[in-house]
Amino acid sequence: MIKNSKNDKRNKLSIAASLSFLSGSSLFLPNFSNYAVVGVWLFIIGSLLMLIDSFR
Which of 1, 21, 22, 47 lies 20 to 30 angstroms, CA to CA, from 15? Predict the structure, then answer.
């Protein structure tokens, strides 16, 4: 049961990282250029989440 809990947390972290990357990447599109700085921060957050996930 503990392994399931750990896998669930890891999956949630991985999903959060992927959504952060997707959201950040989409803000680099020309239509959303006013939000490029937010896109950069989402990209950085996604990177950190993936790094944390890789050490778990």
Answer: 1
